[in-house]
From TrEMBL:
InterPro entries: Dimeric_a/b-barrel, Tscrpt_reg_AsnC/Lrp_C. This is Lrp/AsnC family transcriptional regulator. It comes from the Archaea. The lineage of its organism: Archaea, Nitrososphaerota, Candidatus Caldarchaeales, Candidatus Caldarchaeaceae, Candidatus Caldarchaeum. Coiled coil: none annotated.
Length: 77
């Protein structure tokens, strides 16, 4: 099962809006608000790599108030 971690920066004051949008996506398994270089770390799991890419490109990258996003695709566990 393909997995990825997303490192997200968010426009200040918009964290709750972004969190609400992420929680509505079935492939989002965990969301952690963090301090440091990034504002959130998101764990995604999908049935296929194609579905993982689709969720990232068509759902998550279109969420408003995300200012940057770094994707880390898991290659082995």
């Amino acid at each position: 099962m393909p997995k990825a971690f997303l490192l997200i920066n968010i426009r200040p004051g918009s964290e709750d809006d972004v969190l609400g949008n992420l929680e509505g996506i079935g492939e989002v398994k965990e969301v952690k608000r963090v301090y440091g270089v990034y504002d959130m770390v998101v764990k995604l799991e999908a049935d296929s790599m194609e579905r993982l890419k689709e969720v990232m490109n068509r759902r998550i990258k279109r969420i408003g108030n995300i200012t940057s996003l770094t994707t880390l695709v898991v290659v082995s566990e």
